TrEMBL record:
Keywords: Carbohydrate metabolism, Hydrolase. The lineage of its organism: Bacteria, Bacillati, Bacillota, Bacilli, Lactobacillales. Pathway: Amino-sugar metabolism; N-acetylneuraminate degradation; D-fructose 6-phosphate from N-acetylneuraminate: step 5/5. Catalyzes the reversible isomerization-deamination of glucosamine 6-phosphate (GlcN6P) to form fructose 6-phosphate (Fru6P) and ammonium ion. Belongs to the glucosamine/galactosamine-6-phosphate isomerase family. NagB subfamily. HAMAP family: GlcN6P_deamin. The gene is nagB. GO terms for biological process: carbohydrate metabolic process; glucosamine catabolic process; N-acetylglucosamine catabolic process; N-acetylneuraminate catabolic process. This is Glucosamine-6-phosphate deaminase. Its EC number is 3.5.99.6. Residues 22-221 form the Glucosamine/galactosamine-6-phosphate isomerase domain. Pfam families: Glucosamine_iso. GO terms for cellular component: cytoplasm. It is an enzyme of class 3 (hydrolase). It comes from Leuconostoc gelidum subsp. gelidum.
């Protein structure tokens, strides 16, 4: 793992932008993308740049179950607002959260990933060490699947909703094996509340209790963290 320590998310976004710029220059064709507050500054850097994504395919990590793309809390809506509407891609995939057949939707997403191998995967990390919505004890060989969100994840996401009772309790998520199939992985994390998860990911044992710990086994991982998130390394 390559660890880059920055002063704040703004500096982190600039460092991440440099990685994306290099990736596009090297000819990558598929980007794995993430949602949440962490990548917003990066997406702003990308949209304000002259980088061209018209020949690039994007594949997002996850989506809430029960929310369609017009719902302001859906991850499709988030991506449209922060990136896709400003920087159109050749094709942008987000898991189907409203399919009546969740198993078929998961299998279809695995097919998409198989047909479009991910060159660079962007990740955040949950307070409990999750990547994507792969909660603790998710099998390392998992592919796209339906997730029952833990209470800590629901609580952490409640800030984005008007009422805590509106937070979805399930999601459809790219699996850990799918994340690990990416040629390169970039993980960003900021704030003291992420320090325990970062320490467990980097220095702890590789265990399904901390899903992100599997990244120790990947050959090309860059981690961008601020000083607060790095305090327990």
């Amino acid at each position: 793992m390559k660890i880059i320590k920055v002063k704040n998310p703004t500096e982190g976004a600039r460092k991440a932008f440099d990685i994306y710029q290099a990736a596009l220059s090297s000819g990558v064709k598929v980007l794995g993308l993430a949602t949440g507050s962490t990548p917003i500054a990066l997406y702003k850097e990308l949209t304000n740049s002259d980088l061209n994504f018209s020949n690039i395919t994007s594949i997002n990590l996850d989506e809430y179950l029960g929310l369609d793309g017009d719902n302001e809390q859906s991850y499709r809506y988030f991506m449209n607002q922060h990136l896709f509407n400003k920087k159109p891609f050749k094709k942008s995939y987000v898991p189907d959260g409203i399919s009546e057949d969740h198993k078929a939707a998961a299998e279809q997403y695995d097919k998409i990933i198989s047909e479009h191998p991910i060159d660079l995967q962007l990740l955040g990390i949950g307070l409990n060490g999750h990547i994507g919505f792969n909660e603790p004890r998710t099998a390392f060989d998992s592919t796209t699947h339906i997730v029952d969100l833990t209470q800590s994840t629901i609580d952490a996401n409640a800030r984005f909703f008007d009422n805590s009772t509106d937070v979805p309790t399930q999601a459809i998520s790219m699996g850990i094996a799918s994340v690990m199939s990416a040629k390169e992985i970039l993980l960003m994390a900021y704030g003291a509340d992420k320090a325990d998860a970062i320490a467990a990911m980097v220095n702890g044992p590789v265990t399904e209790k901390v899903p992100a710990s599997i990244l120790q086994n990947h050959k090309n991982v860059t981690i961008i963290i601020d000083e607060a998130a790095a305090t327990k390394l």
